[in-house]
Each structure stands twice: as structure tokens, then as C-alpha cells.
Amino acid sequence: MTLPAVVLLLVFNYAPLFGLITAFQEYDPLVGVWNSPLAGFDQFERLFGDPLFWGAVRNTLYLSFVQLILFFPIPIALALLLNSVLSQRIRNFIQSVVYLPHFFSWVLAITIFQQMLGGAGALNHFLRNNDIGTWDIMTNPDTFALLVTAQVIWKEAGWGIIVFLAALAAINTDLYEAAAADGAGPWRRLWHITLPGLRGVIVLLLVLRLGNALSVGFEQFLIQRNAVGHDAADVLDTFSFYYGIATGDYSYGAAAGLFKSVISLLLIWGANKLAHAFGEDGLYRK
Amino acid sequence: MGNELNRRSFLNAAVSAAGLVAMGPLLSACGGGGAQRAGVNSEAGLKAALPAYVPNTSIQPDIPSVAGGPDALTNPGFLKYPANRIATVSGVPGKGGKYSTVTPLWGTIPPADNSFYQAMNSALGVELQMKPADGNNYNTIIPTMTAAKRLPDWIQLPTWWNSQFNTGGLAGTQLADLTPYLSGDNVKKYPNLAAIPTAAWRTGVWGDKLYGIPSFSSGFQVAGIIYYRRDIFEAKGISPDQVKSADDLMSLGKELTDAKNGVWAFDDVYRYIYTAFGAPLKWKVDNGKLVHLYETEEFYAALDWNHRLATAGYVHPDALAGDNANGNTRFYGGKTLISSGGTGAWNLSDAQSGAAANPNYRRGAFNIFAADGKSAPRIDMGAGSSLMSYLNVNLKPEQIEELLSVANYLAAPFGSAEYTMINYGVEGQHFTMVNGEPTHTDAGKKEVQAQTYPFLATPASAVSSPGNPQVTRDYTDWQAANVKALAKPVFWNMNISMPQAQATADAAQSVEDTMKDCIHGKKKVSDVRDAVAAWKTSGGGDKLIQWTTENVLEKHGTGQ
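Output (C-alpha cells, whole complex):
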């Protein structure tokens, strides 16, 4: 039964790994992978000497950090809030509303932000007509990290609560009743029953999040790169695209991509170790 | 012409394609592998390879071409579709061969094996398997074909790829040499191909051999021009003729911007206005020394002007936010009144889209002017053709001859029986004549309207706007008034392909990025100077200039 999944994995995930060899070549699409000349570590030497590359690394880590602090707790809080709503109908309604943006493409999400908050958008139109002065958020590189995090929250927070809701549903309700009978208030129940019940899931997602610290998204930055400039918006993935694929420098882009993969692997390995150290399961049970 | 062809979409594609590209490095040390790049063309070699030019006079336009300088010519205009649709090809060109093709299409892909394709196959006498691919991703699918050495029999490779994509490396190794079939008088066997102007063929010559067949060639090729809303200007009593300098244009920004009502004077105009400041397209020769655009003060003057335009608040905020895709919508809706773009934007479908937003909609363009208001106006000519098709090197000579006969059919002049077939299909089935103009039926809209065959070969461009001759008059009048301003830039039509490192430096991604921030008002001109300084040293800029000097300028001259 698992055969189709294994084949899928082999064909679409493992076989393409072979293409990593281009990072050690001067890849030429006219002659293909087999005939392109080898270049050893030349691409990596260039990469590590490129200030734009380090700018992209810095942006990636910074955005990841901001999202970890500002985004990660939101779905947990939302799930707790939703869990405390008793009416099933209202719960369903709220859940549907907060899920919806997840299914929008980034193009649409950013267009909506532009229409609302952009220089010619609804908010600034109102401000201008009332002579209050305009508020430049969509093209301000200094506040770009906050903007993209707000966009991620708007788009993904609702979707992120699914796992937590499932974990909440798994907590034995008898515990709450017993605690309430013993005189524990809502906060004490949250602290001593709910959060410990969620701990495993939270740690697992944190591990995954750390492992993906270098993947903060692609389209979101690609689309807004012209608006705030490459200094603020270039992350590792857009760097690979603009300085690799877009200029036909395929091997250079592959080197940047490979660098990202190796660091990500180390991060996820480290985070998993950490989880085990805290006595949690992490990605797998030890 | 002017059916579905929209140069703006080409340009958008070109901008995104500034990448997608691919190159083979000329690595001497590493040996093996890297494909050789066919070199630049020489004057003598060109003369031997280029086809003779025999103009076709069988169909006379309503508005004849006007000549400017050498190789500069306005497009002829047709106010009505020629009533007598004469046939220029006798018999069926093909001999029953079967061939695969790949062409880009900016629009909805027609259904495969449809009735129009079948009708074309029987008219052509060959089985052409049409495989139109999404134009926006076109540049990502070709490198996979070249790497696998599996190009189709007939393929379109746009010329704006030339500096980045190694078309020169494909010439001869994967693309067929057409010189023996088309050079000099050989072309007279194919009279419709012979009627394509020489400048367009030049774009298909690599290393002194002819490989490409041009589509949509024109004697009036420019990167783009500055447009304005003629209806709104006239209503406000503003004459475009009062714009004689960059300062005049800037002052319109103050006059026309009404942010409270959501109207900004300008959309992004930098890309088509910087040469008005005297900056070269990319290269100029100063006292025998090759100078790159980034080394000229005129370039920084143009940046400064655009930076001031943005910071003064005269540019639409969405344009400053990098949203180019909706530029047309803003222009149609009157949210911006001055914009820029390729000349292909000036056509019937533009007039129809504009009229849908505002019944009075009328596009106009400023005459070419010099930023200082004193120098002679000039605009750089582009390559003779933006689109070239190529045949596969593995075809046998008789197969090449068969496909050239098909190309001859596809290049039949505007208004001929063949042209009508290619662009409108079968009368009664795909189109009917309404008020003397061929008009697509529903089947025609679905199967014919999105152009496929024209990306393999077309006649030289003609202007027409069936049912709305005003558009043709406006555009041909503007061309006639400005054709004298056309001038050849350094390395005009020279098909330079360069080694990987130089091509990367040529793309100058880091400078282009900083430049965009500058014209959007986010960075200063001095930041661009810093980026250029870094580009010259660590970005390979100086080496690019040196390489181009030694391998192009000193060996082959300026091509002007």
C-alpha cells in the first residue's frame, strides 16, 4: 500500500537531488548536466564573498525571528479562545472565517493589503481626504518585517489552529471537572491542564519551525520586492531566484539553495536534540 | 496586423525574462562541455549571408510608409481591410511532411487539434503540430529542451533573450543553417520572405550565417514611448506639444496630480525616458573608448529626474509599490494620465479596453524630445525584429525547403488570401465579413484569435484597426512625425553572445535593483553610484567593458 507513496517520494524528492551537482559545476543548459564542466567550490567561494548574499541571510534570520515571536503564539491563543466558545454554530462560523484566507494566493492577499493600506488604498484615501496626512506602510523598508508578519497572521493564523484544536479535543474533560471541583479557577485550569496537554504539539511545531527558520516564504517577498526594495525583501529563496535563475547563473543559484538546505538540516537536527533533552518526542520518539 | 499582438505583454515577458536564460561558459581551463558561442557578425560576412530584399507591391496600403534615416521606416497603415484578397502563393506549399513546433502565446491556449489547425494543415500541405506554450513561462521551458537536445522541428526564440540566452551557442549545434537556402538571390524562390526588410534578417544571423526567420518585423522598432490620455488632455485644454523638455513634463505632474480624487499624473516612465537625457541605450563610444551606460552622467541625471518625480508625489503609489501588472488598468481608469510602454500597446484591443472604462478614451504619445529641450530629439532603434523562429539542425535539406515554403505562405502580405486564412481562418466558419472587415465568429475567437502561426513567420508589420480607423491614423501620424528621431545605437543588431561571467555582469542585477529603489524614491542617486562602483569591481563590470571592447568594438566596430 505504501508503494505509490514511496515511488512518488523517490521520483519527486530523491531523484531531483541529483541536480545538486550543478552547484559544483558551471552549468550550461545547452549541454545539460552530464556535459557541463566541473567547478569545484568556485560557486561557494563567490557566494561567501557576496555581501548581497549575507544581506539575504540576515533578512531571512531576522524575519524568521520576528515571525517566531509574533506569529507562533497567535494560533495557540486563537485555539484556546475558540475552544472556550460553547456554541457549536458560532465556533463553526468563526473557524470558517479564519480558515478562509489560507486558501487565497499571495498575489491576492497582497493585493487586498495594497487596496486597503497602499498609498492609493482605502485607508490613505480617507486620511488624505480628511487632511490627516498619509501613512506609508506598504513601501516602507523599515517596517517591512512587521508588515509581512501581519500578512502571515492574517493569512495563516486560522489554518494554524487546526492542530491545536485537535490536541485540545484530546485532553480528558474529566480533568477539568475534577480541577473545577477542587476549586481551580479558569487560569489555573489553563496553566495546569490545558497547556501541559498541548506541550507535546507545541514543541513539535517549534522544532519544525526552527528547522524551517531559513524558509520564510518566496512569493510574498517576490511580489513585494519592488515595493520595499531588495535590501529589505531579499531572503535566501529570492536571492537564489534573482541572482541565480534570473541571470542565467544557474550554478550560483543552486549553490545558494544547497547552502540553505545544509543549514536547515543542521537546524532541524539541533532542534530535535533540544526537544529530546526536554523530554519531549520531537520528530520521533527516542 | 494588430490583432492579439500586444507588445506590452512582450515587454512584461521580457522584463521577467531578463532572466530565464541560460548560458554556456567558454571555459578554457575546465575543458570539455561548455558550448561554443557563435561570435559577432562582420560586415562582409553579413553581406554574403543576408537575403536579397524584393518589396511586395501587390497590395497598396492606404497610408504608405515614410522613410527616416537608414533602416528606419514607418509601418504602412490600412484604414479598411483590402477588399480584393489576392492569393500570393500558388498551389499548396508543403509535400505532406509532419513537423513539431513550439511557440509562445500570451493569452488563452486554443484547443488542440481544432478545426482551424486542420484547415491550416490542408492549406499548407504539411502536418504542423502546433504546441503554443504560455508566453509568461516560455523562457523556463526552453532551457530544459536545449539541455536534453530535444528542440522541436520549428521553434520561436525571442530576440530579447539574445544577450542572456545563448542563442548563438545553439546556432549550428541545434539550429539549422539557412544560409544556403536564403542568402542573396536564393530567397527569391520564396517571394514573401524576400519582402521582409534586411534589418529584420540581420537579427537572425549568427557568426555570419543566417539561422532565424523574423516575425513582426518593422522599420520602426523602439523600446517604448511616453503615452498620455489624449481625451483628458484635450478636455483640460493641455497641448502635448508644449512638452519640449523634461522640466515641461515634470510641471505637468503638478498640474495633473489630484491625489484626493485618486488621480496621479504619472505611472512608471523611467525605462522609456532615460535616453531622452542623452544616456545611451547601454553603450556609447566616446573618443574611440567604449563607455557603459552606468558610467555616463546622463544616466544619473535621468535617475535624479525620476527620483524627484516620485518624491514630489506625482507618481501613482501602486506604481511606486512595484505593481506594473495593473498599469493599463490605471491608465484606462484615468487614475494615471501619463504612462509608458512599447508601441505595440497602441492598437485596436487597447482602444476597446480603454473605451470599456471610458467611452471617450483615446491614446496619444508625446513626440520624442530631448530632456534639455535644446538637443536634437533622438530615440534608439531596437533590433529589426523581436521574434525569430529557427529550424532544427537535424532536418534534411528537403525538409528545410518544405518548411521554408510554409514560412513563405505564413509571410504573405497583409490583406492577402493567405494572411486572411492565417489570422481569421475559414470564411463562414471562423470569420464573416462585417462592414467590409473580417470579424471572428465564436469559433474564430476560440481557435484563431490567439495567434499561433505568426510566431513562426509573418510579413513585415502593417498597422490596421478594423472598425476603428482612428487608431491607425493616430499611430501612423505619430510614427511619421517621429521617424526622423530614430537612430541606431552602438552595436545595433549585432547579436552579441558573451561568456557566463560577462552575461551575469551585463544583467547587473544589483545595480538594477538599487536603481528601481532610486526611481521609486526610496534610495538616493548616490546609492546607485555606490552600487555601480561595487558592480564595476566585484560585480565584473570593468571586465565586461574590457571584454566588449576587445571582442566586439575592436573586432567588429559599432554596427551603426
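The radius of gyration of chain A is 23 Å.
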